[in-house]
Every structure is written in C-alpha cells, then in structure tokens.
Structure to design on (513 residues):
C-alpha cells in the first residue's frame, strides 16, 4: 500500500509540473461535459480506472509521437501502399496503455487498417468501418489468417496458368473485359495502361477469380484466398512509382501520366519529342514498363511471408462498409477509438488513386466518382446538411468564406461531417474511455483551417473532455511528398503537411458530470 501511495504522489507531482510547464508539442485544454448514454455491446473492462485515464492520456500525448526511426515493416502493415497512413507504433502506444486484452478497439475511418492490425496483435477486439471499397479489402486481408502452404500453392498455380493463358488468349480476354466496361471506364483504362499490360492484367484477374470456382476448400476460405490475391494484384498498380500503370506516382493519390515510355526491353514507345527538347526533369517524367507477372510474383511472395497465422484465441475482426457519421454499433460499447479522418477539401484524394485497381475488380469510373463526392472532406456542397458549429470553429469558417465563398462552404461541410463523426464516437464510447484522433490541417486561400483546434472545439461542445493535443512531426521523405518532389516553401500542400495533431478525447463518467 505504501508503495502505491508513493507512486500516486509521484504521478500527481509529475502531472502538476506537466500542467504548469507543458513540453513543446503538447497543448493542454480546458474541458466541458454533457450527459452520456448507457448501453453496452461488449463486456466491460474495469482494468483502466476512470480516475487515472486523464493523467495517462496527458502523459502519452506529451511523449514522442514521431516514430521516425521505428521499423514499421512487420506483420501485414506493408501489404499495400496507402496515402497518409500513420505508423503502427502510434495506435500500438495507446492500445497498450489504455486497454486490456479482449477490449473493443474501434477505427470508424479505418483506411488501410493499421489500428485494427495492432488491436489484433494485442489480442483486443478490432472493429472498423470505411466507405472505400479498397480500404475494406485491404483491412480484411491484413487481419485474416490463412494457411501459408495453401496460399503458396494457389499463387504458384495462378502464375503458371496465367503464363500459359497469356500466350493463347491474352488479347481475347482483353476484349472480353472491355465488353464489361462502360465508355468512361474503357477510356480510363486505355489512357492509364499500355495494351500489353492490360492483357496481362486481364489474364491474372481471370485466374484469381477461378479460385472460388475450382477450390475444394470451404467457401469462406476460397473467398479469403481471392481477396488476398486481389490485394496482391492491386499492390502492383498502386505504388509510389505507379506500378505497372503509366502513372508516375499513385501512392500519393495525385497521378500524372508519364510523358516518355520505354518497353520492358528499354526501347522507346513514345515521347520522342520530349527527348529532343532535352527536358530538364526527364527522369521524373519517364517510365519503363514492367512485367505484370514478375511484379505479381515478387509482391505475392513478400505478402505471404507476413501473413497472420491462425491462432486458437483469434478474435475475429468486425470489418464493415459503413459511414463514420452513422455507425451500426450500440451505445457505450467501445473501450478505445484510434482513427485518422480525411483532410478537408480532398487534400488527400484516396479514391482518385484507388480507382486504378478498383476498375479491374468490377467498379466503374462513374460509380467511383459518385463515391468520391460523398466521402468526408469532399468538395461538393449540393444537398449537404450544415451543422451549427462552436464559435471558434465558426470564426475560422467565416474567415475562409470571406476569402472564397465556395471554399468556406466546403470547410463548413467538413466540420459539419466531423461534428457528426465525433457525436457518433461519443455515443459508442464507454464512459471513462478515450478516443484518439490524428488529423492534419489544410490551407484554404492562404488561411490555415486550424483543424486540430477546431476538432477539439467541436469535441468539447459535444461533451468530451479534451485534456491535451499532441503534435506529431511528419517524416516528409517517407510519407507525403510525391516521387521526385523537392521542398518548395511556397507550395500550400507541402506547407500544410509537415505536422499532425493527435487529439485526446475522454467521455466523462456519470460521476464526473
């Protein structure tokens, strides 16, 4: 008992000093609370006492959140490129400190599933939602254990049959695929993929889809195998170099088509005029075509090596298509939320890159365009429901609107959507539990949108206690800048993407209201 009292006094003294002199990068905030709801879905975990979670959260947010030297190439985290994802060490830190085994960990905007993978590794119950079809595929594959022997057998069979088929029916298959594409999708594929590449991709996808027809395993196992190889297929397209497409960069979401193209032998296919002009950035506008089969084989074997292994105490993740503004969860059922919402005004445009692989999985360009317009942070304001905003947040919106009325509406849309997201997070979180939101700011017409402070402002208005905001400095070389880009102090996209805010929210208990 004496040792516990000594530890408690030490913690109180440390927190007192922290409050009086917060370290650089930590912002301490006042709180405001409102009545929470009461309904449970998962069993309660009493291990984290509500009286200490605020202090723990402040301490965690004051620590190093950069993780620049940390190795993130473990487990299934590198299965597929995904723009602007945070390092796995970030959710790992909060999961380890704020939850116990068996607790429910939610990411309502899960993206590539980093939080869910870490929850699974820590033997927590992973729960995730997203409206991006590729995000759902990525997360399901990254959290689904498979028999490596069966995966290797299936992958080798796919490649063997695809090689044979490519000699006999490659162009027939391409024409068969074209019949299923509408005009817009066909034009998109023709512009962004060389004809030979198209044929090889058609052959590969046909063999992947045959798994479910020919497999003698259970249907769920066959579906998991198909999903695994579809993700390998996608991963050879969406890469920092643009993969097997004609794009120069797809990992950062803003594609540009190569102006100088060489075939796999190194012979020039087109772009002769660029060579004559001796373009100063020739290396950044040139691309050599790659073998679809070689790229698929390399990625397939890399991903197999990091497949999650079946375990007897495996907690099956809950992964569903769903809007974070309307979660299909009961009240008071979640023990921790760790998430990263999109930037305002589609600053990171996920769907623009993801359609490069989704068109091969049966999605049309027009359908994906509609989905893009409906995602949080979109630019369309037609038919949007605008929420009332707290005064400080409204002031930021009005200042942007004074510079550009349309941009002001776009920002109002974003903060309205995030109000509904935070309201849902408050509803599903258990009283006395925490939520972590990692968000970057945007610049509109030269005005910083102050996203971190505004989301804290909105959270307090909803009823959250927001004790602090941590600062995470981004490794620009590893995360945000497109291939070949150099630092440009006048670039708005580069200016706004050097830091992120890590906002800590706590849902008060009844006793604290």
């Amino acid at each position: 008992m004496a040792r516990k009292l000594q530890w408690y006094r030490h913690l109180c003294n440390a927190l007192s000093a922290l409050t009086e002199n917060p370290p650089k990068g930590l912002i301490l905030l006042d709180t405001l609370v409102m009545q929470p709801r009461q309904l449970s879905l998962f069993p309660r975990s009493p291990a984290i006492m509500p009286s200490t979670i605020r202090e723990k959260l402040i301490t965690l947010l004051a620590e190093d959140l950069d993780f620049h030297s940390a190795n993130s190439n473990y487990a299934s985290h590198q299965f597929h490129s995904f723009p602007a994802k945070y390092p796995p060490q970030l959710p790992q830190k909060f999961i380890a400190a704020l939850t116990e085994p068996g607790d429910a960990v939610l990411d309502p905007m899960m993206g590539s599933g980093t939080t869910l993978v870490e929850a699974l590794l820590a033997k927590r119950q992973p729960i995730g939602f997203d409206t991006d079809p590729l995000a759902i595929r990525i997360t399901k594959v990254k959290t689904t254990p498979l028999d490596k022997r069966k995966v290797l057998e299936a992958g080798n069979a796919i490649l063997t049959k695809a090689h044979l088929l490519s000699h006999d029916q490659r162009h027939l298959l391409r024409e068969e695929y074209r019949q299923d594409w509408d005009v817009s999708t066909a034009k998109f594929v023709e512009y962004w993929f060389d004809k030979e590449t198209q044929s090889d991709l058609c052959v590969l996808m046909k063999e992947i889809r045959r798994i479910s027809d020919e497999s003698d395993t259970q249907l769920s196992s066959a579906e998991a195998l198909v999903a695994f190889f579809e993700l390998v297929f996608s991963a050879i397209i969406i890469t920092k170099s643009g993969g097997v497409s004609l794009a120069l960069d797809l990992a950062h979401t803003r594609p540009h088509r190569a102006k100088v193209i060489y075939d796999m032998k190194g012979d020039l296919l087109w772009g002769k005029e660029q060579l004559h002009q001796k373009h100063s950035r020739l290396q950044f506008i040139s691309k050599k075509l790659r073998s679809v089969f070689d790229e698929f084989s390399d990625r397939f074997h890399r991903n197999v090596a990091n497949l999650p292994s079946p375990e007897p105490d495996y907690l099956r993740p809950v992964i569903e298509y769903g809007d974070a503004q309307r979660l299909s969860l009961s009240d008071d059922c979640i023990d921790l939320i760790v998430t990263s919402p999109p930037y305002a005004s589609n600053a990171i445009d996920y769907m623009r890159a993801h359609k490069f692989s989704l068109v091969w999985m049966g999605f049309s360009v027009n359908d994906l365009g509609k989905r893009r317009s409906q995602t949080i942070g979109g630019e369309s304001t037609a038919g949007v429901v605008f929420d009332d905003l707290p005064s400080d947040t409204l002031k930021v919106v009005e200042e942007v609107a004074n510079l550009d009325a349309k941009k002001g509406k776009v920002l109002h849309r974003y903060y309205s959507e995030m109000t509904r997201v935070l309201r849902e997070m408050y509803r599903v979180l258990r009283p006395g539990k925490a939520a972590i939101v990692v968000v970057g700011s945007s610049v509109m017409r030269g005005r910083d949108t102050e996203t971190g402070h505004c989301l804290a402002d909105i959270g307090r208005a909803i009823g959250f206690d927001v004790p602090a905001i941590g600062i995470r400095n981004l490794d620009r070389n590893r995360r945000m800048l497109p291939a070949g880009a150099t630092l440009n102090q006048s670039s708005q996209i580069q200016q706004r993407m050097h830091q992120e805010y890590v906002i800590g929210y706590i849902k008060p208990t009844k006793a604290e209201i």
Observations:
- The chain has two domains: 22-131+316-512, 148-305.
